[in-house]
Amino acid sequence: MYLVMFRLDPGEYDSKFHELNDAIQEASEDTEGYLGKRTWHAPESEEILVVYYWESLDALESFGADADHKRAKQRWTEWYDAYEVTVTEIIETYGSGFADDADPPM
C-alpha cells in the first residue's frame, strides 16, 4: 500500500479551483486501486494535510496521468501559497481503538 501526503497552505479559491478539485476527486475514486483519503486541518494555522491511500504504485501513477490532475498541478500558484507532496510505501500498520475509522478509510 502507498500513502500520498498532500500538505498545503491554502490561498484564494475560485470557481475553477472547485470545478477541478471535484473532477480530480472523482478521477481518484474512479481509479482502480484508490483506497480512500483523510483530511486534517492544523488548529494553529490554515495548513491542511490530505492523506490518500493507494493499493499500488501503478494505481497512483495511473491517477497521476489524469488530465485534470495535470492541469491543476500546473496552476497551483493560483490557489495555494505553498504545497508539499510526500509518497510513502506502507510497510506495516497496526493499532487499536479506531474500529470503523481504521486506515485505510473505505
- The helicity comes to 25-40%
The total number of structural domains is: 1
Q: How many H/I helical runs?
A: 3
Strand and helix order: EHEEHHE
State the low-pLDDT regions, or none. Answer: none
SS-based class: alpha+beta
Strand residue percentage: 25-35%
Keywords: Plasmid
Organism: Halopiger xanaduensis (strain DSM 18323 / JCM 14033 / SH-6)
Pfam families: Monooxy_af470-like
Protein name: Antibiotic biosynthesis monooxygenase
Characterization of this structure:
By secondary structure, the protein is α+β, with helices and mostly antiparallel strands. The chain has one domain: Alpha-Beta Plaits (2-Layer Sandwich), CATH 3.30.70.100. It has 3 helices and 4 strands; from the N terminus they run βαββααβ. It has a 4-stranded antiparallel beta sheet with strand order 2-3-1-4. It is globular, with a radius of gyration of 14 Å. The model has no long low-confidence stretch (mean pLDDT 88). Pfam families: Monooxy_af470-like (PF13826). This is Antibiotic biosynthesis monooxygenase. It comes from Halopiger xanaduensis (strain DSM 18323 / JCM 14033 / SH-6).
